[in-house]
Structure prediction request, 566 residues.
Amino acid sequence: MPTTALQLSDVTKKFGRQTVLSNINMTIQQGDIYGLIGENGAGKSTLMRLITGLSPLRSGQIMLLGASRNQAGYNQALQRIGTIIESPALYPHLTVYQNLMVSAKQKGVANRQDVLATIQFVGLTEKTKTKANRLSLGQRQRLGLAIALLAQPDFLILDEPINGLDPMGIIEIRDLLHRLNTEQQTTILISSHILTELYQVCTRFGFIHRGRLIQEITKPALDAASQSGIILHVADVNAASEVLDAQHIKPFNVMNNHQIIIYNNTLDTGEINYQLNHAGVRVDDIQTQSGSLETYFTTLLQKDDQKGGAAS
Amino acid sequence: MMRIFKSDLYRLFHTTGFWLTLVVTLIAAVVSAANKAIGGITMGTSALENMAAPNWTVYNTARYLSFSTTYLPYVFIGLFVILIGYEFSQQTYKNTLTAGIGRWQFIISKNLTLLLTVGVLIALFFFSGVLTSAIAGRPMGAALGKIISRILLYTGSQLVGIAAVYALATVLLVLFHSTVIAAVFIVVFPLFVPGLNTFVHWSWLKYIDFLSTSQNLTAGILSNQTLGRFILVSVLTTIIAWLASALILKNQEL
Prediction:
């Protein structure tokens, strides 16, 4: 049975009168690579700063590796994590090796071999003696990642680590994260404002919009939901499934208690609607989706905006 | 705490600014002693009037150099910037604080590392000056033990004063995340307090004229008996400023 690495319960954050995070409930299991997706300003960095202790927690509860944010043991839990928050924090006049040695001594792993191995792991061996202020953006990100990895953390928290990287840089970071997860069983929480950048590396996704976690979804479910097809919102998915089977309308997938996706958008939606109504299944909504991660993401945000608009 | 201490010392020894500070400190001591130069930034006329005619024995070299230690907090601003200021200008505090280091531990260890470094440099300043005098063939003027104890007294009293000024600068640094504001405070505060006292004549101001303690001791303005009161004010100011810095840091959005 998987163990919970991070649990957020009713976490709310306000800056003055502005609510930037509202009742966030989120669970990350050990071994997950959890992608936190949201537009700029959605609240991703604030959430990560709350988890890592850089922002005071006034409302809600955070449990990290079994320790509560409000208790003294949280600092011990923090010692088991590695972080990059917003951008890698480096000493510009020190070399790659020296930057890592500073962190190594701070984390009590002042072993030259460990430092060199970490440099090699992130692919910076040729830059070992290069000063941080002479590194490219991608190399700086990799050095930041190396600092986060030094003490072999159980949990990595990475805030937009692939922001501004070129395609090759993104692939390299993704490969690194894959290796960490598979070789060292490191749990990873990673954020981005671009879903496609994280799609290939994450096992679960959380979508954050205007300070609210509007959906959590596993990768298989996201794959199913983002394919092209026809989305049905019905009152009774079991009855609707029977109708679709009887009419040889295939393939389809039941997403939840009220949603079915038919992976064939060449079918006539009017005909499907007629068949379901004829069988006594109430159809609340029927629409086609063009089938891409970006479309899924933008549709999700639009729906949430409409809900917000309707509520207000 | 020891881990931060070790990592800061590693960083310090790999920063050119530290070695430049060390060289400047040693040159200042050697030049002052060799040229029999007495002078200090906040050195008031009362201090000078209380001085007897200079007699450059090895022992008195240590005494006279205590005036010049008022320059040192300015020379050491670089160390303040390297050890504490950088954390905020480069936001490297994120690495430390997210690694499970508490705010109080962070502030204390940074300041203690700074004070240890400053203390060693002040002692080196005195010892190199005294050595210059000895090499110049001047008479000892006192037993070696007395010279050493004098140096340690001056180093200690100056260090306590510097600790208070740097601790107050740390509060400003943490509050505004601005190395410039903190550095300007270190420059202005030791000049501002005696300057203000000239106009308002508030007797309590002398207790927060932290950097004048050792020169007043040399000039005979301050007795060994009243020294304790000055040190107590400096130490209390330092501790309260450290607590305030940690508290501000704890409640800040970082």
About this structure: Residues 1 and 106 of chain B are 8 Å apart (CA to CA). The interface with chain A takes residues 3-4, 6-7, 10-11, 14-16, 86, 90-102, 250-254 of chain B (CB under 8 Å). Residues 103-135 of chain B form the longest helix (33 residues).
